[in-house]
Amino acid sequence: MKKRRINAKVARNLEGTLFIAPWMLGFLIFLAFPLGFSLFMSFHQVKILPTGMKYEFNGIKYYREILFNSSEFYDELIPYFQEIILMVPIIIIFSLLIAILLNQKLYGRFLFRTIFFLPVIFTTGYLLTEFVNQGEGSLGFLERFSLGEYLDTFLGNSTWGNSVKTILNRFVLVLWYSGVQILIFLAGRQTISNSAYESARIDGANPWEVFWKITLPAMTPFIFLNLIYTVVDMFTFPFNPIIDLIGTGNYGYSSALAWVYFLIIFIFLMIVMFIFVRINKRQRAATR
């Protein structure tokens, strides 16, 4: 009997290993090896010779150059970082409101859900770049109503003012990047029991109170998930100027720049997670 149990356990482990083997193989070949190789190149000066690639160890030279001597890196990073800080809340709030709207019993709601998700499929990478190069993706109301002059008056010629104008010019692109977030919020909204809303209506709660007391607290885990997803998605945005800097011909320098950028993204995500956890703890303490 004991041998049968052991054999059954071994069989289950073997089945699980076989199912996960393709993913592990793909991870090792297409992700783990390139990551390790790029880290290796970041500490070397890479030269391409007719006989192959030559690596000369230069330690942290490229990292020192990027962090302390590269003004171009900070000139591109800081304005784009400001744009991300402004774009992420816009995408989260817009996605949440649209998801709540699409959860209503509207005529043709399945069609509207498809329309909001289609940009995720079609407007990615090269195709999105071509849209913008052809003049699409811009609302054009800044030029039509001369709003750019008003923004210059109130915000001045600052980096934050330029970031606001850039986002308004690309506002359609911001909305196009909300499809996945809408889908996640929609799934989260459907996890809330209808009995909670019926009880609130019986107690005389209005829609505004229902939203703040029931919907928003129940959607907190999905807000956190969308927040992480949106931050990562914005840092890999096709119009990210840092990506263009990484694509230089110096493989060692580009690898070091990619790892520095990765660490910046990681630190930013940790800060976002820390702030969100603190706010969530305060909300839970207030409701007790």
Automatic annotation (TrEMBL):
InterPro entries: MetI-like, MetI-like_sf, UgpAE/MalFG_permease. Coiled coil: none annotated. The chain crosses the membrane at residues 20-43, 84-103, 110-129, 167-189, 210-232, 258-279. It is found in: Cell membrane. Residues 14-279 form the ABC transmembrane type-1 domain. GO terms for cellular component: plasma membrane. Keywords: Cell membrane, Membrane, Transmembrane, Transmembrane helix, Transport. It holds the Pfam family BPD_transp_1. GO terms for biological process: transmembrane transport. It comes from the Bacteria. It is a multi-pass membrane protein. Belongs to the binding-protein-dependent transport system permease family. This is ABC transporter permease. It comes from Lederbergia galactosidilytica.
